[in-house]
Automatic annotation (TrEMBL):
A Pfam family: Ser_hydrolase
Keyword Transcription regulation: no
SUPFAM superfamilies: alpha/beta-Hydrolases (SSF53474)
Molecular functions (GO terms): hydrolase activity
Lineage: superkingdom: Bacteria
Lineage: Bacteria, Pseudomonadati, Bacteroidota, Chitinophagia, Chitinophagales
Protein name, entry field: Alpha/beta hydrolase
Length: 174
């Protein structure tokens, strides 16, 4: 049986966010909690992923990242080298862009090594936190399938992504 682990981005995902919708509707889906959502340290966030997965067969795990959660998954894999079943990486923020001035420590540079498991990068053509070109570059480096959702902003609640059937459908491909 597949187990789904949600890895939110900066500030967590609120009640109207598609990650919350998945958490509430997909069986065996849990959110990985962080102690510090607004000024995160990469080391803490990746450690919490590893703790959350402890005792779970990695071959049954699909990680679901959004925004900073995508970079967190890349750092987690680079550090722990634990292959999982797959990862859905939605709107991976470009932490190296000048516009990204949030107090996130240790997330840059973004790891660019290919994942040895199935990954899907979902990107928008008008995301304020990552250009489509940069999201495409991440997908190429990570050996990920790229899904272009068009003009969808940051693919979050503010962009109208609460219940997101396309995202739920992508989970079925794992």
């Amino acid at each position: 049986m597949t187990r789904y682990f949600i890895v939110p981005g900066l500030g967590n995902s609120g009640p109207a966010h598609w990650q919350t919708y998945l958490e509430e509707t997909v069986p065996d889906c849990v959110r990985i909690q962080q102690q510090e959502w607004d000024a995160p340290a990469c080391e803490d966030w990746i450690s919490n992923i590893d703790k959350a997965l402890h005792g779970t067969d990695p071959a049954s795990v699909v990680l679901i990242g959004h925004s900073l959660g995508c970079a967190t998954i890349a750092h987690w894999y680079q550090h722990y080298k634990k292959p999982v079943k797959g990862a859905l990486l939605v709107a991976p923020s470009d932490l190296e862009a000048p516009a990204y001035t949030f107090p996130a420590t240790g997330f840059s540079p973004i790891p660019l090594q290919p994942f040895p498991f199935k990954t899907i990068v979902v990107a928008s053509t008008n995301d304020e936190w990552v250009s489509f070109e940069r999201a495409t570059y991440f997908a190429l480096c990570w050996n990920s399938e790229l899904v272009n959702v068009g003009d969808a902003g940051h693919i979050n609640a503010a962009s109208g992504y609460g219940p997101w059937p396309q995202g739920a459908g992508l989970l079925k491909t794992f």
